[in-house]
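Look over this one:
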Amino acid sequence: MAPNISMTSQELLRWHLDAGVDETIAAKPVNRFESLAAEPAPQPVSQQPGFAEAPSPSISPSPSPAPATVSENGNEDVTAAVHLAQAAETVSDLRQALESFDGCVLKKTATNLVFTDGNAEARILFIGEGPGAEEDRQGTPFVGPSGKLLDKMMASIGLDRTQALISNTVFWRPPGNRTPTAHEIAVCMPFVERLIELVDPKILVALGGPAAKSLLAQTAGVGKLRGKWFPYSTPGLARPIEATALYHPAYLLRSPGQKRATWSDWLGIKRKLEED
């Protein structure tokens, strides 16, 4: 028999937060047990109207066609994303394309599309991993605690959001702030690549490991990639873009000891921006 444990409302809320339940999906709660009880019990096939019981066949029936695999559906989503992204001629067009795109499952649970913030003509483009809870509420990337730290780090080299553009590798918040899946990143990547082509910045900065692996095609962690420069190119770019990786601001909030090394990386970015 289970022990009788009572919890205060505050303790119960804390338990939900610890379990990762930090957002509600619907405005009103749904009693799943009530809806389950309301459903009629399934009727045996032999008792359904129009059914005449027949003797079992002497041969095995042909196997049913296999359902479409996840990879097949995923390929269709990526193909649709490529067509929509390539048709965009401006960053505004690209946003409208994302608003009409239903190929990413994250859209079903997110509150808002989180696309870009800043100057679409900036010389530097920052791309992180994905939106968090505050970003999802406001529809703007990097507005939570990690965004405030990013603003401070940009200010340290004389930048603000009017001189930079900020985005992510996925444009809707993963539930519970989990890491985006490979499929979720894949269906968003055509839009990310088209964004880079349209902005055509001098410098591309990947914030955090997932963004660095997706954009720089590198398997090493940020600790080995930071401070190094890589050429980023797509068929739509007139020339390769200089790209680098930084520790994600959220990681620096958890590991403040890495801020000194990150300061050195920011100075390197400043030197690149000052080059002709």
